[in-house]
Protein 1
Amino acid sequence: MALEQRLMDVERRIAEACARCGRDPGSVNVVAVTKYVSAAAAKRAVEAGMRHIGENRWPAAEEKWRLLEGRAVFHYIGSLQSRKVKDVIGKFDYVHSLDRLSLAEEVHKRAEALGIRVPCFLQVNVSGEDSKHGLAPEAVPAFVSSLGKLPGIRPVGLMTMAPIVDDAEEARPVFAGLRKLLEEINGMSLSDEPLTELSMGMSGDFEVAIEEGATWVRLGSVLVGHEENDG
Ligand SMILES: *Cc1c(COP(=O)(O)O)cnc(C)c1O
């Protein structure tokens, strides 16, 4: 399937999911995850109308960033090692994977040196799987409070990855859990501004995530595809 066709398909599916739960499709942002494809294919994705690009590794993403700098908004969606912070911060516009204080301190330091504030999602391990990165849900309030001392970070919301399941419905409680946590955090007034964003939902489960309140879905296979079916 051609890129434009895939984009139209995804947009239709987002609109249908929004119609089922009474949401405005404009409230759902799409991050096109280009980690499976070449820089040339990522460029075609941007030319086809995808504005937000998601990558999960550095320096693997460097070529794409150099090619598309200024033409796309870059989202760092993978687990971020502290020693990569100096490379990633200043290039990527959003970090979706803030999951520990030591990393937050590094991001803050780098952001301050650059005179910027970096919008960050706090990654939460809602499902409790050992293999997943992220804060335990009960650790999130204290983490949000501690970010108050790190103005280089602008906390915008929460992110989670659901377990890989055959039936997306099985992921629903994880998405609902993240939304509930967001509401609880906002109820505690721990940050200057409320957290408004929920980054949740991938190719296999994004419609369910939207029904549960996702404001950012991160789509690779279903949208950008893999190298072998590219172009
Ligand atoms: C790879 C990846 C995605 C996209 O996965 P697909 O299932 O191909 O849509 C989304 N989020 C993260 C964090 C990823 O690493």
Protein 2
Amino acid sequence: MHHTKSNLIEIQEKIKNKIKDLSLSNYKPNIIAVSKTFSEQDIIPLLDYGHNDFGENKVQEAKKKWVQLKNDFKNVKLHMLGKLQTNKVKHAVEIFDYIHSLDNLKLATKLADEIKKKNKDIKIFIQVNLGGEKQKSGIDPAETPSFYKRCLSLDLNIVGTMCIPPDNQDPKPFFKDLLILNQKLNLAEISMGMTNDYLNALEYNATFLRIGSGIFGNRIS
Ligand SMILES: *Cc1c(COP(=O)(O)O)cnc(C)c1O
């Protein structure tokens, strides 16, 4: 068995056990296999196994790999996780089904324009900068409700919120903050939890886990 497939199966097992420990029936979080920097050779075993949700960080790289793969595997949903520049929106809207990194109004406006023009249905997460970190993207938590309203007035299909907690800190308080914010906005989806903390994210109702190195191995670049 290819290592990416066995890694995914192992992670699915851990998630199942954690959900059992938490006594949460009917809780089915989605795993996004974050394939950035990895090639078709490592992705195709997962597609053959029936996995459909994949994540990328760069528009160019995503197009290079996924135009063909999405043609071969029609059920694939591709998730944009990285910082999205407005000049890449046109291409992003062509290849991605979900965007997790909406973090400013200029981007929201541009996305709304392109989605309308191309008649797409793209599901969008607002990225929230819970740690108030200067080097990280995201809307300030206090400004997120008004930003969300602006997005609705642009007809964007906002399905949830997303966060990347600060490095080297307990992620749980941040996961909890995002859950509370999400409930306040009455949104269904929560994108949080990566290789090192996805089991913690399950304690706070994460619905999309973004797992890269745990499935594909360590990234070189
Ligand atoms: C790369 C990346 C991930 C996956 O990270 P791992 O630690 O390898 O699981 C998740 N989310 C975002 C936004 C990323 O850029």
